[in-house]
């Protein structure tokens, strides 16, 4: 089993999107179920490991980030990310719980593809790119394949500057 106990996923998603939402006059951001937002620049969302759902091929995390604005027209929920490891270190897929329902009961949404490489204390994910399935979540602003931010999975908790 991959070493994810005590691990966390740190990801700025796509910094331009977080900045865009933060600049809306009625912007709201909430984190729950163990997720945290940092004050780093770019700002990171930190999702703690979910060892019970982690398998040989899946790195699972919990935590729920919700962003809203534009009088409720904009609502994006990014919760319970899971990374399906690619075969032989190939492209991995990060999915999130159904972002359209409050309780995430619908099918998971494959959000980005990402190239994972081992680091001293976990994994680093580069070349993140939006899937075709993820396009609607961002109001069709980003096309399929649009670059998303790199991510880190660390096994030691050194996260500082915790806001929430
Ligand atoms: C009242 C409805 C909306 C209006 C008036 C609106 C307006 C805008 C404007 C003016 C921009 C350009 C901002 C800039 O370049 O600084 C933008 C960007 C964007 N909007 Fe909206 N928007 C609306 C709804 C939504 C919704 C529902 C979503 C869904 C998530 C969304 C997602 C985005 C994204 C992803 C960007 C690109 C941010 C970036 O990476 O720079 N918008 N929007």
TrEMBL record:
Q: Name one Pfam family in it.
A: HtaA
Say which domain of life the source belongs to.
Answer: Bacteria
| Protein name in the entry | HtaA domain-containing protein
User: Origin organism of this chain?
Assistant: Rhodococcus pseudokoreensis
* Domain (Htaa) ranges: 7-153
